[in-house]
Amino acid sequence: MQTPFVSAVNQLCDEKNLDKAEVIDMIKAALRAAYRKDYGNKEQNIDVDLNENTGNATVYVVKKVVAKVADPELEITAEQAKKFKKNPKIDDEIKIDVTPAGYGRIAAQSAKQVILQRVQEAERELMYKIFKDRENELINAIVHRVDGTNVYLSLD
Fold first, then answer.
1. For a Cys staple, 107 with which of 19, 100, 103, 155, CB 3.0–4.6 Å?
2. Distances (CA, A) of 102 to 64, 95, 123, 151
3. Cα separations (Å) of 128 from 122, 133, 154?
4. Is residue 44 part of a domain?
């Protein structure tokens, strides 16, 4: 049985003719943006692990192990890194779990906006790939509506 998350991803892939990996990447980017908006800042290196079967996400702050910390948002000392990894070495990357208990309303809206924007960009890219080879070709179309400078057509 599919979880609601998997069903929603599959439905989005089918409706918009998108690759599932691309949609998962969109969701990860949206979660990163949402975390930065509510909990983090723009300088942090945020990584998201997303379980594609359940939809559960884990948010990590990624820091580089250094001898002396110049930027605490991006770096961590080897001594501090021992809390997260047994034998950290200089130049290792440490992932620190910072998954919030629940995203706020504003962060959820931010995630939604990022997903919608990425879906629209992917749709445009897909349309471009489909029709780039048909340049200078005469085709039949039905005009559905004219909205300002945009004309909405039905092709094939």
1. 103
2. 27, 20, 30, 42
3. 10, 9, 15
4. no
Burial of residue 114 (number of CB atoms within 10 Å: 0-12, 13-18, 19+): buried
- Is 48 contained in some domain? no
Q: Domain tally for the chain?
A: 2
The string of pLDDT tens digits covering residues 82-139 is 888 888 888 889 898 888 777 667 777 878 888 888 888 988 898 888 888 888 888 8
Residue listed under structure tokens 């340049």 = 135
Cβ neighbours of residue 93 under 8 Å, at least 6 residues apart?
62, 63, 64, 65
Q: For tokens 């359940």, what's the residue?
A: 54
151 and 105 together in one domain: yes
Helices (H), 57-104: 78-81
